[in-house]
Amino acid sequence: MDRLNRPEINQKLVVTDLLLIVTGSFLSAVAFNSLLIPNQLLSGGLGGVAVLFHYLSGWRTSVIYFVLNIPIFLLGMRYIGRRFITYSLVGAISFAVLLAVTRIFPAPIDDPLLGGILGGFLHGLGAGIVFRARGSPGGIDVIAVGIKKWRGYSLGQVTLAFNVLLMIIFGMIFNLTLAAYTLISMYITTRVIDAMETGLDEARSVTIVSAKADLISRLIIDQVHRGVTYLEGAGAYSGEHRQIILCVVNPTELPNLKDIVFRADNQAFIIVADVREVVGRGFKVEPFEY
Fold this sequence. Notes:
Radius of gyration: 21 Å
Strand order of the largest sheet: 2-3-1-4
Low-confidence stretches: 1-6, 285-290
Largest sheet: 4 strands, antiparallel
């Protein structure tokens, strides 16, 4: 049996992914309760909305976050892939539960700027772990995936628009100083997540050398939903003819792609290169000039 289809390996990968999602959710929950909330700061996404409602109403952030996610997941189940929605549901529930559990943790820093810097780093570390496990903490990530499929906007565009609106509301209700500290924290969170996804650019060129090029190509097309190009090649020493796979993916898709390749062929050879710009289907599209 091909090792890709062995149920015990797939089950082990699922368990590992779920443990990573819970671990990342724990780190993010600690960042919220010990660093961000004690210093009257927000995070981005739906977590930031939950914290804002907490400041205004006094209700628990964990309860607000869980309630806000309910309609999002009910809609997401109709339009988004099963694995992503399942992993995101695990992320959202574990984050909400751990937000409640970590409320007893101490708040060691009484300084909004330093709290924002450390909180942004820790939250980015937690979210990055969740994303590397091919999940999400729910909320805006589920919304962004749905809007991407519905209207074609990128995940980054949706998230940026949401967070800008959130910061405007936060600055108007509280004060611009706290909003500025929150922006610094959110920037650090974003950079840490990007770094954990193996780079800071918007795309990666991936070259794959494998004796199972046909199998890997089908898996990339079916599971990553990216196009694949074959290049003709031959080993200089052996003279053996090989089909070389070339594809371009987003940084967030790279962990999943590498996982697919090495599960199909643990002897595969992968080269990942930064791409300065990608124009075309699935990436940035240049406006047509009439």
